[in-house]
């Protein structure tokens, strides 16, 4: 066995290197009965045009995602540059994340957070086991954007703004 094979995989380095891929930030929401539920999610992207589908990767430790999956329909809120605090609040497990948060329901009832840059209303299609996360496919049913706003970005473990 060579030295390389023996060395354990450096997950810290992996995080550090992958952190160089700058992304937007989303909050995935749903209505679980009459209770809104949501969590911050960076691993989001478009998957297919026809049919229109998106992909996201919730972690297996998330307590919000299993509830959203059970509801079977959700909204991906793409955050705008002044929603960093909201992104941090929705990244904490437990507690009432929606306390004091203004929102309106999209067509499937899921919360659209006031001030969001854009949103995508989805129906849950399937989830694939993927290590310590799941790979989730959502079918897009409706969407909207507030193009006069700018995105909240996440890069190397920190939040940033987009300067055209
Ligand atoms: C900027 C940022 C990006 C995140 N991206 C993800 C992600 O892609 N997938 C995920 O499962 N958790 C992600 N998290 C962590 C979740 O938001 C956090 O684990 C979750 O909100 C825990 O709450 P829950 O138990 O209510 O699900 C991210 C957190 C932050 C601050």
> How many domains would you count in the coordinates?
1
Largest beta sheet, briefly? 7 strands, antiparallel
- Biggest β-sheet: strands ordered side by side in the sheet: 3-2-6-9-10-5-4
Q: How large is the share of residues in beta strands? A: 35-45%
- CATH architecture identity: Roll
Distance between the termini: 50 Å
Give the ordered list of helices and strands. Answer: HHEEEEEHEHEEEEEE
Mean pLDDT across the residues is: 96
Q: Mind telling me the C-alpha Rg? A: 17 Å
CATH topology: Pnp Oxidase, Chain A
The level-1 CATH class: Mainly Beta
| Cofactors, ions and other ligands in the entry | flavin mononucleotide
Task: Supply the CATH superfamily name.
Answer: Electron Transport, Fmn-binding Protein, Chain A
Uncertain parts:
none
Oligomer: single chain
Question: Counting H and I runs of at least 4 residues, what is the number of helices?
Answer: 4
DSSP helix fraction: 10-25%
Question: From the helix content, strand content and strand pairing, which structural class follows?
Answer: alpha+beta
The outline comes out as: globular
Description:
By secondary structure, the chain is α+β, with helices and mostly antiparallel strands. It has one domain (25-149): Electron Transport, Fmn-binding Protein, Chain A (Pnp Oxidase, Chain A). It is 16% helix and 43% strand. It is built from 4 helices and 12 strands, in the order ααβββββαβαββββββ. The chain has helices at residues 3-6, 11-18, 64-71, 84-89; strands at 23-24, 26-32, 35-41, 44-48, 53-56, 73-78, 103-105, 111-113, 118-130, 133-145, 152-155, 158-161. The chain has a 7-stranded antiparallel beta sheet with strand order 3-2-6-9-10-5-4. A 3-stranded antiparallel beta sheet has the order 1-11-12, with no helix packed on it. Strands 7-8 form a two-stranded antiparallel sheet. A hairpin with a 4-residue loop joins strand 4 (44-48) and strand 5. The protein is globular, with a radius of gyration of 17 Å. The termini are far apart. The relative contact order is 0.22. Residues 25, 39-43, 57-59, 62-65, 87, 90-91, 93, 154 line the site of flavin mononucleotide (FMN).
